[in-house]
Design a protein that fits this description.
The chain is α/β, with parallel strands linked by helices. The protein is built from 20 helices and 28 strands. Helix content is about 40%, strand content about 20%.
C-alpha cells in the first residue's frame, strides 16, 4: 500500500519525512533534560519506535488492540504512540487531570491492554484502580525508581519500566522487523487510529473513534489553508497531546511537513521556554492569549508618565496600520514611519518575550474575544482561530493568514460541507464549502452541522449515542450555534449553554461572558439565568491583580470560605461589572454576582480538560449561593 509519498496513515507520515523531506539525521524533537535542551533526530526516534513495536509484539499485542497513555507531552508520548500506530493498535490517551474513577472507566470501556504512565503522582492513581481493570496486562512507568510505588503491591498487571521496554525491544527488532513492516503496510486509512474520550459538560465520557484518514486528511487540508507553514518551522508544544487539537495541529502537522517539535517543560515555564526555543508557530488557547494581553497592558500602563503615553500611542498606530493593511491598501509614508517607531519602542519588546520569531499563533479550544485578537494584530502577531470538536478530528474551519476577520473562526477547510440549521424546524439555511466561499456572504443563525472527511467513525461501544449526533444524511450535529459572517464561520455559543430567561429571551452566555472578561480584574465568569427573571453570575477575580490591589497574602486564598464577602473587594469588581454592562442589552446584564475565592477547576470536576464549564455540575454545586443571589435582589425590590 505504501509509496514514497504515502501520507494516508499516521505511521506513514514519519516515514515520508525521512524519504522525501529531511535526512534521518535531522532534528525531529527537542526537550529539556537536566536543564539542557536535547535534540532527537528522526533516526534516533525511529530506532526507539521500532524497539517498542517489537516489545509489543513479543507480549502479544496485535492490530486493533487498545493501548493507553496517561503522560505529559514529551518524546516518550511520541515513541509509544508511533510504536503502537505502526502495528495497527489504537491510541487511548487519558487526560492526566482525570480522577481515579474516570481513569478506571476509560481503561475498562476501551479494554486497554497496556498503559504508559508519566510520573509518580499518576502511577499512584493507576495502581489504585489497576486490579479493577481485567484487560490491563502491563503498566509501564516512564520514570526511574517506580519500584518504590509498586514492589509491595499485589497487582494483576505486570509492571515494567519504559526504559526496560526499549532496551529489551532493541534486542528483538531483528526478530520482528518483517512483522512490523507487514503490520504497517496492512493498516487502512479507514482503520481506527485513536480513541479520545470526551468528558463533555454533562454525562458519561464517550470514546470518539478517529481513523487514520480523519487525522491525516485534517492535517493535510489545514496546511492547504495555512500554506506559510513549512519544513523549517519550529513548533513549541505545551497543550496536552491527549487532546485532539494539539495532536493534529502540532504533532501531525509537524509529521506532515517535517517541522521540529520542541516540548515545553510546563505551563509555568512556558514564557521561559519561548525565549529559549524561539518558536515560529505555536498552538494555544484563548486564556493564554488573554494573560499575555493583560500582562502587556499592565506593564505598558502601570508606569504612567511618558512610558504609558508611548505605549498607548503605539497601540493606536498599530491599530491604524493593521486596519489599512486589512483593507488591502498600502500605508502612507507618515503612518509607515510612525509604525516603525512603534515597532522599535513597544512592539519588538513584547515580541522578544515570545522568542521574537513567531509567524503565527493558532488559537483553539474556545472562543477568542475579539479585542484580544485585535490586540495581537495591532502588535503585528497573527493569531489564527480555528473551530472544531474532538468528533471532527478536530478542525472544521481556520482563519486564512491573509484574511483575518476578528470574532470569526475562519474559512471552511477543503473537502467538507458545513451547514447552518434551524434548531427548531430543522430547516437548513445554507450549506457552505471551501470552494463556495464568498467574502461578503452572511447567513442566518442556527446549529452548525458538518459532514465529510473530518467526521468521526462514531462513539466506541455507543451506537445509540452515535445515531443521536450523526443523522441519516451523514450530518454531524455539533451542538454549537453560529452563522456565516463575511464568508467566515462565526460561533455564537453552545446550544446546551443557551439560557432562556423567564420572559422568553434567548441569552448566549459566551459573548456576554467575554464582554465581562475584558476586565483585567476578572479571571473567570459563569452566567446563571435560565428560566429566571434576570442574569446573575459567579465571578472569579484575577488572583494576581487582587493580591496586588489589596496586598493579600497567599493564605487569603486558602480560607475555607468558598466565596469572598469583603465589601471592598466586591465593590472593586462591581466597578468593572457596571462599566462592561454598558456594552450589553439590558436583559443580558448581570444584576447580582458572587465572588468565588478560587478558580473553577478540573480537579473539582467543574470544567472539562478543554476548560469548558460543566453547567449542570456548577449549578448543582453552588445552588445555595445562586438562590441567595435571587433572594437578595427580590428583597431589595
Amino acid at each position: 500500500m505504501s509509496t514514497a509519498t504515502d501520507r494516508s496513515t499516521v505511521p506513514a507520515l514519519i516515514r515520508n519525512v525521512v524519504k522525501n523531506i529531511h535526512p534521518d539525521t535531522h532534528t525531529f524533537m527537542t526537550h529539556k533534560v537536566n536543564n539542557v535542551w536535547v535534540e532527537i533526530s528522526y533516526k534516533q526516534a525511529l530506532e526507539k519506535i521500532d524497539a517498542i513495536s517489537a516489545w509489543f509484539l513479543e507480549i502479544g499485542i496485535k492490530k486493533d488492540d487498545h493501548l493507553a497513555l496517561i503522560i505529559e507531552n514529551g518524546p516518550d508520548y511520541v515513541y509509544y504512540d508511533q510504536a503502537l500506530q505502526q502495528l495497527g493498535a489504537v491510541n487511548t490517551s487519558i487526560y492526566p487531570t482525570l480522577s481515579e474513577t474516570e481513569i478506571e472507566y476509560i481503561l475498562n470501556d476501551s479494554a486497554a491492554k497496556t498503559i504508559l504512565v508519566g510520573n509518580p503522582f499518576l502511577l499512584r492513581k493507576v495502581v489504585k484502580i489497576a486490579n479493577n481493570c481485567p484487560a490491563l496486562i502491563r503498566i509501564i512507568p516512564a520514570f526511574e525508581d517506580f519500584e518504590k510505588l509498586t514492589d509491595k503491591l499485589s497487582l494483576n498487571a505486570g509492571v515494567v519500566g519504559f526504559k526496560q521496554v526499549i532496551e529489551e525491544g532493541l534486542s528483538m527488532v531483528s526478530k520482528y522487523t518483517s512483522a512490523i513492516n507487514s503490520a504497517r503496510e496492512a493498516i487502512l486509512p479507514s482503520d481506527i487510529s485513536c480513541l479520545i474520550y470526551t468528558s463533555g459538560t454533562t454525562g458519561t465520557p464517550k470514546g470518539v473513534m478517529l481513523t487514520h484518514h480523519n487525522l491525516t486528511e485534517n492535517a493535510r487540508v489545514c496546511l492547504i489553508q495555512i500554506p506559510i507553514i513549512d519544513k523549517d518551522d519550529v513548533f513549541l508544544s505545551f497543550l496536552p497531546l491527549s487532546h485532539v487539537f494539539e495532536r493534529t495541529a502540532t504533532y501531525h502537522v509537524c509529521l506532515f511537513t517535517g517541522c521540529k517539535i520542541a516540548f515545553a517543560q510546563s505551563l509555568d515555564l512556558l514564557a521561559k521556554n519561548m525565549g529559549e526555543v524561539c518558536p515560529t508557530v505555536m498552538n494555544c488557547v484563548p486564556r493564554l492569549l488573554e494573560r499575555i494581553h493583560d500582562k502587556a497592558m499592565k506593564n505598558g500602563t502601570d508606569a504612567g508618565g511618558v512610558k504609558s503615553k508611548i505605549f498607548s500611542w503605539s497601540l493606536k498606530i498599530g491599530k491604524q496600520y493593521r486596519e489599512v493593511k486589512e483593507q488591502g491598501k498600502k500605508p502612507g509614508l507618515v503612518l509607515n514611519n510612525q509604525h516603525k517607531i512603534a515597532e522599535k519602542l513597544v512592539f519588538s519588546k513584547i515580541k522578544e518575550k515570545t522568542g521574537g520569531r513567531l509567524k503565527i499563533m493558532l488559537s483553539g479550544g474556545g472562543a477568542l474575544p475579539k479585542n484580544i485578537g485585535e490586540f495581537f494584530g495591532d502588535l503585528g502577531i497573527k493569531v489564527l482561530e480555528g473551530f472544531g470538536l474532538t468528533e471532527t478530528s478536530p478542525v472544521m474551519s481556520v482563519t486564512e493568514t491573509d484574511r483575518i476577520i476578528y470574532g470569526t473562526v475562519g474559512r471552511i477547510i477543503p473537502g467538507i460541507e458545513v451547514a447552518i440549521q434551524n434548531y427548531d424546524t430543522l430547516k437548513i439555511y445554507t450549506i457552505q464549502t471551501h470552494e463556495s466561499f464568498k467574502q461578503d456572504f452572511e447567513s442566518e443563525e442556527g446549529e452548525i452541522i458538518v459532514r465529510g472527511h473530518c467526521v468521526m467513525k462514531g462513539y466506541w461501544n455507543k451506537p445509540e449515542e452515535t445515531a443521536s449526533v450523526i443523522d441519516k444524511d451523514g450530518w454531524f450535529h455539533t451542538g454549537d450555534i453560529g452563522r456565516f459572517y463575511r464568508g467566515n464561520l462565526q460561533i455564537t455559543d453552545r446550544l446546551k449553554n443557551m439560557l432562556v430567561n423567564a420572559y422568553g429571551k434567548n441569552i448566549y452566555p459566551t459573548p456576554v461572558e467575554n464582554t465581562y472578561l475584558k476586565s483585567p480584574k476578572i479571571e473567570q465568569i459563569f452566567l446563571v439565568g435560565d428560566k429566571r427573571e434576570y442574569i446573575t453570575a459567579i465571578v472569579v477575580p484575577s488572583r494576581e491583580t487582587l493580591q496586588e490591589t489589596f496586598n493579600l497574602s497567599n493564605e487569603y486564598f486558602e480560607k475555607p470560605d468558598l466565596f469572598i464577602e469583603d465589601k471592598e473587594i466586591v465593590d472593586w469588581i462591581n466597578q468593572d461589572i457596571k462599566r462592561q454592562s454598558n456594552e450589553l442589552a439590558k436583559f443580558e446584564r448581570i444584576k447580582n454576582f458572587k465572588v468565588k475565592r478560587n478558580p473553577f477547576s478540573m480537579e473539582e470536576g467543574e470544567i472539562t480538560p478543554t476548560l469548558k464549564a460543566k453547567r449542570k455540575v456548577i449549578e448543582k454545586k453552588y445552588a445555595d449561593q445562586i438562590d441567595e443571589m435571587y433572594l437578595q435582589e427580590a428583597e431589595a425590590d
